[in-house]
Amino acid sequence: MFDRRLILCFDWVLLLSVLLLAGAGILNLYSATANWSAGGTPVYLKQLVWLAGGVGIALLVCVFDYRHLEYLSPYGYGATVLMLLFVLFAGKTSMGATRWIALGPINIQPSEVMKITIILVMARFFSARAHPQGFHLRELKVPLVLLALPALMVMKQPDLGTAMLIIFITGTMTLFAGLEQRSLIKLGLLGLSGIVGGWFLLHDYQKERIRTFLNPERDPLGSGYHIIQSKIAVGSGGFAGKGFMDGTQSQLSFLPERHTDFAFSVFAEEWGFLGCLLLLLGYLFLIIWGLYVARRASDRFGMFLAIGVTAMIFWHIVVNLGMVIGLMPVVGVPLPLFSYGGTSMITTMIGVGLLLNVSMRRFVF
Amino acid sequence: MRLNPGWRGQAFFRNRLMLFSLGAAGIFLLLLLRLWYLQIISFERFEEKSIQNRVRILSLAAPRGPVYDRHEELLVDSRPSFNISVMRQDVVDRPLLFEKLADLLEMPAEELEQNWEKGRGLPNYRPVVLAYDVGRDRLEGVLERQQDLPGVLTEIRPVRSYPYRDMAAHMIGYLGEITREDFQKSQYAGYQVGEYVGKSGLEQQLEHLLRGEEGQRLIEVNVKGNLLRELQVMEPRPGKKVYLTLSRPLQQTLEKAFGEYAGAGVVMEVNTGRILAMTSRPGFDPSLFARGIRPEEWNALLENPRLPLQDKSISGQYPPGSTFKIPVALAALQNQVARPETEVDCSGNYYLGESLFRCWKREGHKQTDLKKAMRESCDVWFYQIGLELGIDKLSEMAFNLGLGRKTGLELGGEKRGLIPTRTWKRKRFGENWYGGETIITSIGQGAVLTTPMQLAVMTAAVANGGTVYQPQLIERVENWEGQVLQQFDSVVRRKTRFRSGVLAAVKDSLEEVVSHKKGTGRRSAIPGIRVAGKTGTAQVVRRLSVEQEEAGIEQELDYEFRDHALFVAYAPAEKPEIAVAIVVEHGEHGSTVAAPIAGAVLRDYFNIPEPEPAKEEKDV
User: Fold this and answer.
1) Rounded to 5 degrees, what are φ and ψ at A356?
2) Contact B3 A277 (CB under 8 A)
3) Complex ipTM, two decimals?
4) How many C-beta atoms surround the C-beta of residue B56 within 10 A?
5) Of the candidates A232, A249, A288, which has its C-beta nearest B24's C-beta?
């Protein structure tokens, strides 16, 4: 079954751009955590290990034909929902949120798995149905339920960021499949009322974050502290930045979460607008290449799969940057390939593996 | 050439893909515009803010949790101490600063330099401590001059305080600065350089409970690093409260009764295994460690031949001497090798082939039964009965009473002791077991070793009818809201069923040890309470050769060659409540040195006033 063409068609451009972005991320982590307390493995080395593991996983994901995933996807989805259910009743709690299943030394975060499995199940749904005029709302009952179930459970954990991402990913895929004009408007209104209604479902700390986002000065040392400090770091970077390892905000003062969610503010401070421009171009290239993979996919399932993965990476970037530069409330979403963290790295690399898989089988039927 | 002919509707999606690409680019452009706004248009404003932005986060160390005794009396506490620290990035002229500080604090500038070096491993935003536990006067001196001392700040650090000084020091344990090796261990994840952690005793075992959660203090400083105002304080959370089974008054009585002697003592509840008091002598002052022990003090402790840092109650291994006659007698009766009435004629000598084994009483005890053998500690009775019993049955009983294995107390460093068996000897020396070895084992000499804790467990098991409890030191752990986090119940390790009459006979003989006018343990007797016990003398070296002895030579031995004195007891004999085990290193005679210590403890426990000083008498 293994075709020589698979090697010939391997998508080196995609892998290389991923590695370049991750490399920049590790360099940035090196600076962000340069003067941390002694003891333990340095953060950037740990991230390097995660990256190596991630590449391994991505390559592993390429080996089998992604088309098997089409009929497997409902089972994967079902299993993930069960895991989320388990978390709801017997999950591991850490820092006020119950998100994990403790499996010996490893903690599994089912909401992360859901990001992938919902892409698969949605790709299966949309690839089986063609609608040149776009879907009518009535026909979208199934995906709506498939989305609402995990989204509500994740929100309950509470993990607003991940719930939001799952909704964004599914929304992008639906939009790509096409919507009838009137349904589009209705769905938009539904979403809006969802946001308004959702306000009352939010936890106090989540409401607080949104209030603070709207007016950070309200609580400059509590939840507003993150946004203010991050904006100062980014803004004081100026055009050319303060130089590698010379960011005063990140090196001297205390920039919170500077190796995880706020890694980009360290980068922006030290490399300035110029660096940010280059980094954003890099990410944009990755996104457009992902769409290009979708375009070249040899079947509809592959195309939707590629769209879903690309949407996942895209929304992570947008939500994280939006938060770091004060365009969005702080929701705790990592920047793919840039923020420190094994979970984020592995989810991203499984996505990259799926893209590589679709890409290299573009001539295989 | 494209091999892919395209599937139905593909062209339709191509337009949509183009649209999505543009959409993505558009959103990225929005992000870039925002970055442009922040980094180019508002640059000057943010740059100024970043220069002025001098918010510092100081950690507020959490006090370690307090330790209480069973009556909720405070045994170990924390008190605030003041440290002089420095924020390194705010220091302009280090030598000048150290010169000024050395003057104000009256300490050498080299010491300040050393402490600065020690803080290298700390993150930059963390201040480095230059002087620990500074007195009020000096602290005020520094505070007055703070404007001249850029970067210098004062921090409050809680320090362990010990209202009862060195009481129960081994059991409570001491603290020490976290070491480089400690950082490699996962249990110390999240610890900071310079932090104090438990190094021994309960402080070490309960480190995770006693350590509190650090708080934070956000302060704003000016360009020179001087404090402008306090912005926010997150109070630290002190460690959990630990309640021990220990009784402070009894502990003090036990320690006082030891006087200048070295050794160890354990007092235990017979029916639960809870420890009422345990000590190891000599003690040490844990407050030396709490403030950071000086090298010369540390060396003095290490070089002391009486090993003040060793917890002798669980890691001191001693031959049990005649206290071992208790398991021997029980084994003999249980296995029907002897009956309480079995008589042996003690001439003072016992021959096995060519070898001579002496009774401690040279002229012999004459006709001796179990009661007499126990109360006067006749060795010959036990030589003969032990030999008939055989080493394996003897050892089995010793094991069943909790000897020769760890007792399972919640402290580190416990030793197993040693109960010899044939298998042990073959494995250890590759030799067969000899009858002569059984003979000396029968009086608790030879290879057999026990810890004071094991002796207490054994005595309690005899007293309660054969149940070996795991000794227990911690009663419960509470948080500051008074919620019980952990509650410890007594744990039964082993239960022995004795034939009818066996236990009663041995217990009667033990009571005579204390109550009979010729009993060796009568110096532990207290009016109104029936006490049962057994003395022991553990030979450290063979004292005199047979020839010397026959020549009647008496010799004053050097301290380290003197015998250990032992005494185990329980009371009241008819319905036992507590068991006591005392080992006095080089105390020479169980009856004169160890028994009175037990007596003092029993008196205190049963609330019986001190007696008139008794006249000296000497035997085993």
Assistant:
1) -60, -40
2) no
3) 0.92
4) 22
5) A288
What are the start and end residues of each CATH 3.90.1310.10 domain in chain B?
Answer: 57-240
Helix (H, G, I), strand (E, B) or coil at B250: helix
B248-605 placed in CATH 3.40.710.10: yes
Span B475-482, mean pLDDT?
A: 90
DSSP labels, B325-377: HHHHHHHHHHTTS--TT--EEE-SEEEETTEEEE-SSTT--EEE-HHHHHHTT
Q: Are B538 and B561 within 8 A, CB to CB?
A: no
Asked whether residue A365 is assigned to any structural domain, the reply reads no
The answer to whether the beta carbons of residues A44 and A26 sit under 8 Å apart is yes
DSSP string for B286-318: HHHHHT---HHHHHHHHH-TT-TTS-HHHH--B
For B320: left if phi > 0, alpha if psi spans -120 to 50, otherwise beta; the answer is alpha
Of B31, B45, B56, the CB nearest to A280: B31
The whole-number pLDDT of residue B250 equals: 95
CATH of B57-240, one of 3.90.1310.10, 1.10.10.10, 3.40.50.1820, 3.10.105.10: 3.90.1310.10
Q: Which residue of B has its CA nearest to A270?
A: B39
pLDDT in tens, B73-86: 999 998 888 888 88
Would the pLDDT of B407 be above 60?
A: yes
DSSP state of B447: T
Asked if the Cβ–Cβ distance from A130 to B39 is below 8 Å, we say no
B498: alpha, beta or left? (left if phi > 0; alpha if psi -120 to 50): beta
B362 CB-contact burial (10 Å; exposed 0-12 / middle 13-18 / buried 19+): exposed
A282 touches chain B (CB under 8 A): no
